[in-house]
Write a structure and sequence with these properties.
Elements: E1 3-9, H1 17-30, E2 36-42, H2 44-47, H3 54-71, E3 78-82, H4 88-99, H5 102-106, H6 109-118, H7 124-138, E4 144-146, H8 152-169, E5 177-179, H9 214-222, H10 240-253, H11 257-263, H12 269-294, H13 298-327
Parallel strand pairs: 1-2, 2-3, 4-5
Helix pairs in contact: 3-12, 4-7, 4-13, 7-8, 9-12, 10-12
């Protein structure tokens, strides 16, 4: 039997180079494996843990679907759907809220970090976010969840919730595993190389967005922070900024870090940045071109999403029916 892969991205903000290199490009590669069944969600329910403009959010759902396709996801190999169009997700999340110990959620690192910033404005939804994420994954008998190392804690919690339910009510849920591509570099902020590149960073100069035009990319790379000294060498501790730029260059060009260090030995930062900007522009050019083609084809996008949600509901409804029966929630 095929193993099931599930993952998703929030439609808030704009997808950037870190999202592409660390996640979506890896999803596209998974399509080459015949032994996998692939499900990729647009997780708009997760996005509303912070206030969203309804019109913007609705448009962002379509934009993200178009970007998924532009990056290389093939609807014939991957199912794509919008999370909020399947009510089974919040339904199962509520059930998980009722069996998950408060302390488990309280220990989640991302909740601690985000609630510390938001203070009294932090929502209950932010606290319960991991339970909804667990529902997203467990509804589909997911075996593998492609994630970065910063998301591993969420997968561990999902495994704990699944195991607890199975122990209390019977073997219902598959216990998923995190799928981590260790060879893929973690892409950091262009303005603070000690922080991960993020859609939510208030400084737009901190990231290269997938739809940035060539002039914007050149300017952002030109203004990216560098380290003291002039050597272009990879050293995450002593030269985190240049190391980050080397990682981006390597990931998009296919050249190894060692090869790039030799290529730019004795060359200044200006020339290195100039070449890096050109590499990024050329790597993102086909994505931008395909995106602007897909976004004009609204009927096609809706067809892809309709087929995805039909598949998702058929699969999740069977799982939820079994859960409801075990809990005595059905007649």
């Amino acid at each position: 039997m095929k193993k099931i892969v599930f993952s998703g991205v929030q439609p808030s903000g704009n997808l950037h180079l870190g999202n592409y290199i660390g996640a979506i490009r890896q999803w596209v590669k998974l399509q080459e494996r015949e032994n996998l069944e692939l499900i990729f969600c647009i997780v708009d329910l997760h996005a509303i843990t912070l206030p969203q403009d309804p019109k913007v959010l609705r448009q962002k759902n379509l934009e993200l679907a178009a970007l998924y396709l532009a990056c290389g996801l093939d609807p014939s190999r991957s199912k794509i759907f919008i999370q909020s169009e399947n009510p089974d997700h919040p339904y199962l999340a509520w059930i998980f809220d009722c069996i998950t110990p408060f302390g488990w959620l309280k220990r989640m690192t991302q909740f601690k970090e985000k609630s510390e910033k938001q203070k009294e404005k932090a929502s209950v939804g932010l606290f319960n976010y991991p339970a909804l994420m667990a529902a997203d994954i467990l509804l589909y008998d997911t075996n593998l969840v492609p994630v970065g190392e910063d998301q591993v804690q969420h997968i561990e919690l999902t495994r704990d919730i699944a195991s607890r339910f199975n122990r209390l009510y019977g073997e219902v849920f598959v216990i998923p595993e995190a799928l981590i591509e260790k060879k893929v570099a973690r892409i950091m902020s262009l303005q603070d190389p000690l922080k991960k590149m993020s859609k939510s960073d208030p400084n737009p100069k901190s990231r290269i967005e997938l739809l940035d035009d060539p002039d914007t990319i050149v300017l952002k790379i030109k203004r990216a922070v560098t380290d003291s000294g002039k050597e272009i060498v990879y050293d995450r501790e002593k030269k985190p900024a240049i190391s980050n730029l080397l990682s981006i260059y390597s990931e998009l060009s296919g050249k190894s870090i060692d090869e790039l260090e030799r290529q730019y030995e004795g060359v200044g930062y200006a020339k290195f940045k100039e070449d890096l900007a050109e590499v990024i522009v050329e790597a993102l050019r086909p994505i931008r071109e395909r995106y602007f083609e897909f976004i004009k084809e609204k009927m096609f996008l809706e067809k892809v999403l309709d087929e995805g949600i039909e598949y998702a509901r058929e699969k999740s409804s069977k799982k939820l029916a079994r859960v409801k029966d075990l809990l005595g929630l059905s007649r």
